[in-house]
Write a structure and sequence with these properties.
single chain, 307 residues, alpha/beta, two-stranded antiparallel ribbon, 7 helices, 23% strand
Length: 307
């Protein structure tokens, strides 16, 4: 965490953005006070998780952000064909929250996981509402989850009703800044309520189709009960990976790395070339067929973009 300056009258202060409301942000100071701040025109927009420098207004009822400290990481999502929208900054982990089939989406999990890999942060897959699965259903679903455990990524079954997996999840998140992502209706608000110190988080009803009502009205940072912070962003029903190059797509699949130097051709696209070590690993069952399919789809999209 960047070193914070002590508060003094008429001087700059430092704090961390803990909520974003569109035209203003809430900034938490080292003494755990909260200041509502806005920013100057033509300034880079702050996002939740940013460490910022600000000056209090003469009225003492707000502040003006004049500096965003260098970001360790920033999570972006595509907005339209070319625009990019920042979601959160200074993350250590990306917690991908899903629920059991039929809602579970491997394509969506893969998109989030690739984003995490490109940011250099840890993806964690959480299968929430595990109490809704029967033993036989869970056993059958394990083959799908083994794909992600083999990468390897941490994979947990959790239930806020029974407490399953919550201690393990708390241990993984302790002292880290994490973002909670996933479609509506997977129980993100309930997880936050269990993991954080907050006591008044609204939990939305879930429709019969499994698509929940949006219960978050602003991107917010919650303090974790066991240390660290958790960022929740509204409206993320579908995640569209930002435009990536072929090289970035390849980096997004770390299980391919051991085979990349074994290909016959240095510029191998790992698609149809003879002597491709990645395809050989796929044939031997060392690489997931589903993950390979996702990889090829992303490579096709990247093919039209400049490297």
């Amino acid at each position: 965490m960047p070193k914070m300056r002590e508060k003094s009258h008429g001087c700059d202060e430092r704090g961390r953005v803990i909520a974003y409301f569109g035209s203003t942000v809430s900034v938490e100071t080292p003494d755990q006070g909260v200041v509502t701040c806005h920013w100057r025109r033509n300034q880079c927009l702050p996002v939740v998780g940013d460490y910022v420098g600000f000056t209090r207004e003469a009225t003492g009822e707000g502040g003006v952000i004049h500096e965003i400290l260098p970001r360790k990481t920033v999570l972006m999502r595509a907005q339209g064909r070319t625009a990019m929208k920042p979601i959160a900054a200074n993350l250590d982990c990306l917690v991908i929250v899903m629920v059991p089939p039929p809602v579970f989406s491997q394509a969506l999990v893969d998109s989030y996981a690739v984003a995490a890999e490109l940011l250099g942060i840890q993806p964690i897959l959480v299968l929430n509402k595990g109490d809704l699965m029967r033993a036989a259903e869970r056993l059958a679903f394990e083959s799908v989850l083994s794909v992600y455990r083999g990468v390897p990524y941490p994979v947990l079954f959790t239930s806020t009703k029974t407490g399953e997996g919550m201690a393990e999840l708390e241990a993984l998140l302790a002292d880290h800044t994490v973002a909670l992502v996933g479609p509506s209706g997977v129980g993100k608000s309930s997880l936050i309520q269990c993991l954080s110190k907050e006591e008044s988080i609204r939990v939305g009803d879930v429709t019969e189709k499994g698509i929940g009502k949006h219960t978050t009205t602003a991107t917010r940072l919650y303090t974790l009960a066991h240390g660290g912070a958790l960022i929740d962003s509204p409206g993320v029903r579908e995640f569209q990976l930002w435009p990536v190059t072929k090289g970035e797509v390849l980096r997004g699949f770390p299980e391919f790395k051991p085979y990349l130097t074994g290909c016959q051709f240095r510029d191998c696209s790992h698609a149809i070339e003879p002597g491709c070590a990645v395809q050989a690993a796929l044939a031997d069952g060392k690489i997931s067929a589903h993950r390979y399919k996702t990889f090829q789809a992303l490579m096709q999209q990247a093919h039209k973009k400049k490297p």
